[in-house]
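Why run this: before we spend reagent on co-expression, it is cheaper to look at a predicted model of the complex and decide which construct boundaries make sense. The entries below are exactly what would go into the expression plan.
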Amino acid sequence: MAEPSAETDEALLDRFERAAFGYFLDHVNPENGLAADTSRPGAPASIAVVGFALSCYPVGVERGWMERDDAASRTLATLDFFWNSRQSDQPDATGYKGFYYHFLDMKTGLRVWQSELSLIDTTLLLAGALAAGVYFSADNPVEAAIRARADALYRRVDWQWARGGGVTARQGWKPESGFLHYGWEGYSEATIVYVLGLASPAHPLSDDSFGAWTETYQWENIYDYEFLYAGPLFIHLFSQAWIDFAGIRDRFMREKKSDYFENSRRAAYVQREYAWRNPHGFKGYGKDCWGITANDGPGYKTLQIDGRERRLLGYAARGVPFGPDDGTIGPCAALASLPFAPELALPALRHFCARYPGMTRDSRLPSGFNPTLPGAGPAGWVSEGYYGLDQGLLVLMIENYRSGLIWKLMRQCPYIGGGLRRAGFTGGWLS
Amino acid sequence: MTSPDTSPPGKPLDDRFHDYLVDQVHPPAWRNPKPAGKYNLVVIGAGPGGVIAAHEAAGLGAKVALIERDLIGGDRLNVGCVPSKALIRTARLYAGMRDARSFGGQVPGDIGIGFAAVMERMRRVQAHLSRADSARRLSEAGVDVYFGEARFTGPCSVEVAGQTLRFKKALIATGARPLTPPIPGLAEAGYLTNENVFNLTVCPRRLLVIGGGPLGCELAQAFSRFGSQVIIAQDDPMFLPKEERDAAQILSDSLAHDGIEIHLNTTVVAVRKDGAQKIVDLESAGGTFSVSVDEILAGIGRAPNVEGMNLEAAGIRYDTKAGIQVDDFLRTSNRRVYAAGDVCLDLKFTHAAEASARVAVRNALFLGRKRLSDLVIPWCTYTDPEIAHVGLYVREAREKAIPVKTFTILMHDVDRAVTDGEEEGFVKIHVRDGTDRILGATVVASHAGEMINGLSLAITEGIGLRALARVIHTYPTQAEAIKMAADAYTRTRLTPARKSLARRWLSW
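The model came back. Tokens follow.
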């Protein structure tokens, strides 16, 4: 392996993208396509990670890291599992109303951890299925079956039900207690929920749902950057991993003369500026060391470190500039900002490699590290193993930066274009 | 951590200050005056709104009667802002002692809490402030002060303590009281509200606060700082659900820092007594669990005081939840009768009661056409940090289809906040996009209640960010954050074309 400083950008990115892709070779059950939430022993499957896995297989094929037949058979096994698994309102089913429970048993595919029937995670699963449906376009039985299954899975989802009688979509539902208390409000990673929900041929969200959702948007000038505010960095990345927002605008962005692509770029700048200012005096923070997001943390505890009380968090949605912030950096989110702000993300990656060589293992980035908390090396505390969401996001975003593959695929998906138009997006590639 | 209460258990509080207070605001030997003819204005309720109204009307030469059934001063003085802020001050002191090392200070030994002394100071403050509202002062100001239950006997008469007062105009300012939570077993087990929490003689070792509203959060934090183990349980997914999400986030962090256990999306389903302690059953996302506490504080909202006044006899329409129905001029369905304050407003704050009472007096006595909706009413939750707001929220602006932009300054960028070790918080000023017109603002800071006043002035008088940017602020002050937000606005006006012009001009 070349030293990062001597490596070209292209080689460096290829190395990290391939390492991230490797997660989906190592931690997927090929029998049913279920992908583990994390690499830790006994981890359940996360349906969102399955969505990322389905989107990563085409990348693997194009990059020569996977045979097309292998990718297709894995994809079909995955879609077959979801199509044939039990849909019911019983607590031990796999899904209900076309949606799926957030966490499933890796082998049986049954609901675990009393998890919620999750809208966002089902949506990311569907995004992966639809990406596969576009990519596997060959005229053969396997790829034809992939296309049919992906379409059927999407059409089966009852988005109208998921409003729970309101205008906007709820976050989830549990058989024990019904819909979760709160819906999706304010700018979040849920844009793609509305896009796919609005495009549904059979059970769409209502026309006014997207407008109702955007009513809680906050356009803020922070550190002299104006953007649609959301604190955790991943919010600016998840829908964007599949949808190319460059040049297309909804009503809000037309009013602000911006778009969601540009918004993610500015969000990266705000992140960097926050880390540079480092208001809480955390170790490591700086202009090339940022990425405050939802990720793994050292665990919930309060410690005195260098004379200061530090309240540490476990897996939590960290955000800037209002917090919470416990000094934990999410390197994956920083690197995943690559398509929007390569001038920030690449120096960050090189900094991570140079300053914290022990933090990356086999070129795979952990969910979080916290240099403020003493550890084995300068990175301090480092998250154990890897998270599937992080690795999937990295594959998609690095690939989008390098070739735009996922964005190109999804532009061809009629449900993405249809949902965007129904949400009021115009211009750019939608013209 | 603060040590538990070191006061002798059950020691009776010194009653000197309480006796003094009562002598001011409901003198035991008080004799109601004899009504002489028709009053220009009869005010029912001597809380902040009623007292202001009576003073204003008397000052303008009106013949005024003021009726109070309990203590002059209302919730503010007796069971609201004054006692709670006195406690919060002491609580901040304890928090400061606990954090002394962060400021390079030394903490000498154990920090013991003398709860009796804390409460005694609170009563001293109440007694001191009661003088301004005393029955004798009001009387000397020309107000006929009556103690007793008021009851309408017709559209222009009211009875109190066996006497009938006739009026040309009347103002109802009877305020509100804590809502009783409909929780099985709670009433039997006993619980605290703002009306009796200030009578505590011992700091509860374990305290459950039901509801994460302003009062609940303020007292939860104060008692935590006095050494109580505090749990907050509320139905909503976040604190102060009406406030901005980022403000609630910062408060949530702050309360956690104080050691408060927070249960959101959690409903109290039952309470039962077990000896001296109370067992509380809670339900959250399908699961149930129980906690054992010594006291329960219910802060789930307030109900207007509309009962017992025979409002029907005067033709005054009301609702037991929303209170007395008023129009934008604060006039009730009886054209001679007005209402102000908590009994008719959504915004149940002392200053809102006072401002609305002033409007009602002008409209009642001088055929005024002042509108309630024209008032700019700020408010503040006195947690640490404080959360203050004025004007529109972003969501309200967007619902009205007003394009809005927010200029945000983080307190960690304000020099004085850093030197004071009070970096948590922000100033957010919402303007109509494309203009400098201020629509609203939220301040989260250690002294947000003080800082919001400058922004209330700006909104009330139509002062925009351009003008605020020209105002020289004292350095270093935390209020400088407002100027910094105005400066951020000014920088946005430096368009590329203007920059280019400036560069050409400066090319000499």
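Residues 186-300 of chain B form a domain with the FAD/NAD(P)-binding domain fold (CATH 3.50.50.60). Chain B is about 30% helix and 25% strand. Bring this page to Monday's planning discussion.
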